[in-house]
Structure formats: structure tokens, C-alpha cells
Known about the structure:
Helices cover 35% and strands 13% of the residues. The strands form four sheets. Strands 2-8-7-6-5 form a five-stranded mixed beta sheet, with helices on both faces. The protein has a three-stranded antiparallel beta sheet with strand order 9-10-12. The structure holds 4'-deoxy-4'-aminopyridoxal-5'-phosphate.
Amino acid sequence: xxxxxxxxxxxxxxxxxxxxxxxxxxxxxxxxxxxxxxxxxxxxxxxxxxxxxxxxxxxxxxxxxxxxxxxxxxxxxxxxxxxxxxxxxxxxxxxxxxxxxxxxxxxxxxxxxxxxxxxxxxxxxxxxxxxxxxxxxxxxxxxxxxxxxxxxxxxxxxxxxxxxxxxxxxxxxxxxxxxxxxxxxxxxxxxxxxxxxxxxxxxxxxxxxxxxxxxxxxxxxxxxxxxxxxxxxxxxxxxxxxxxxxxxxxxxxxxxxxxxxxxxxxxxxxxxxxxxxxxxxxxxxxxxxxxxxxxxxxxxxxxxxxxxxxxxxxxxxxxxxxxxxxxxxxxxxxxxxxxxxxxxxxxxxxxxxxxx
Length: 356
Ligand code: PMP
């Protein structure tokens, strides 16, 4: 830390992304990327734009917002896009996170919520998950502040129903409710359709998971026009060109082949089902995931130890060394072949035969 860093940022603890080691070729099941390549046509679209890099990108992102509006039954003024959904979460915490007494989010959830609350100096309250790691929706009724919920939640993979979220929206009319649907396409109920009914709802999604574009950095949000205008105001006060030409083109080309992406989601869900069965056969307890990862522990096996043993054998999974969840591994669902490698190594480590 230099002596020039503003005092208010000195205590800030930054988010720690999943590791990307380069010492060897790993089976990467640690950052919830999609194991399948981007949609047909995406690479060509990116290459065409790469020839025009001397020109700025469209700050309004008109074509992509129109295409997303068409896909989700909304209008351009209801759609916001930026550089990954992290960028949108950042803007949302900046714009809305300081309302009321404090910002509310679950104690075990996407680690960035806490970082953003601290970055912007907002008071916040982390509401404990139940013993079984589910969110108790009644904890979120009639609160006095901004609410952020990942649905499905990460790293648990557990989801709330649309009806449960609607209760939260109805009981907090004075405050914004952000529903982070990064993983929704893998089997949870989306709240996008509720944005037409509730002016306090912001739904945030990403191309990183279900649309195989983590490296391109593209996120979008859907909400009523006034909330989107607020986000645009913030974006145009920070960096109007936050989405580059190649990513805009990739986003458009991906939507043209959306059925390819949705089919990949179904493949991931099918692989998830088999993965859960195989993990249980190996003695793991696995939460009911609606996401492209599973959260599991093996009673009697230390989570950190399992993580290290897997890494030594070339398989990366995510381990959080924090209270309540340090026994758990978060394992991204890869291709069936990648999962076979995982189980080959797990079998070796746990010395249990896998019977199928
Ligand atoms: N929300 C949740 C719950 C996530 O797990 C992630 C991925 N780390 C994100 C948002 C951010 O995704 P991206 O910035 O790649 O769109």
C-alpha cells in the first residue's frame, strides 16, 4: 500500500477471484465457466470487428440492447449492458446501495456484494442462511434498505422461487431489490417478467456462464426504464465505452444462436444430475443445485485437504476457507470427459471404488 492511497480505501479487502495457475494444464472446475465454446458465428463476428478497432464502440449499445429486449420481451429502455455483470453490480451498489439504514444480503453469497458495500462506504447487514444453507425469504420482508440476492445463490446453488421473490418485492416498495441471475439459465425461475410489474426490481444477468463468454466480459440488466436511466447516468459518468466493439459483436452473434446456448445449458444440467449421483456414491453430501456447479462435502474428509489433493492431480475446484463452508468444495460442471477425470482422481484420493 502506498502512502497516497485515500484513507477510506486503506481497510478495503478486495475480492479474490478463482485462481488461474499457469504451472500446468488443469481440468478447470473452479470458476464456473461454461465448458462449451461460444456460439457459432461469434468468432467471425469478433474478427470482423477487430478490423475496426480504431473506432470507438457504440456507447448506447443500441443494437445489442434491442436484441436483448427482443429476447426477453422488453424494450431497449428496459435493458442495460456493461462490462460483465460485476460492472453492473458495482454501478447498482454505487447508485442504490446506500438507501435506508443499510444494504442487506446473505452472509454466504457472492463475495463481491460485501466488497462493493465497503467500497462505497455503505453500512450493510449479512443475513445468515438457514442451517441447511437455504435463504429464508421471510428474513427479507419489510427491511429498510437495498437488498441483493443471488438466485440461484452462490456458492450453494440453491434457488428461491419467483413467488418467494415477489413477496420480498411487495414488502419493500421503498427500496431496490437486486436479483443476481448469473446462473438462472441452469434451472431456476427467472424474475425478468416481474420487472414489468415492480419498479423496485433490478434483474442482473451475464453472458459469462450460460452463453460461454466469460472472457468477453458482457453483462446485462433488465428493469423499468427509470432504473435503467439511473444506471446509464452512472455508466456515462464513469466510462461510456465500457463494452468494446468485439464484445458487442459477440453478444449480438450469440443471441442469434441462442438455442445453441440453451441446449448447452441442458447438457450441463444433465451432467450435473450424473455428477450429483456419482458424488453421493462416493459418500459426498450435495446441495440441490440449480446452477452450473455443485456444492458438496464428504463427512470425514477435510475440504482443504480434498481441494489440495485434487489440485496436485491436475483438477482445480474452489474451496472457501471461511466459517461454516470450509468443509465444502464448489465444483463447476464441465464436460462429461472432464467430470470423468474428476471422479478418477476423487476415487484415487478417497480410495473408494465407484460403482455405477
Ligand atoms: N454474480 C454471481 C453470483 C457470480 O458468481 C458471478 C461470477 N463470478 C458474477 C455475478 C459475475 O459474473 P461476470 O462479471 O462474469 O458477468
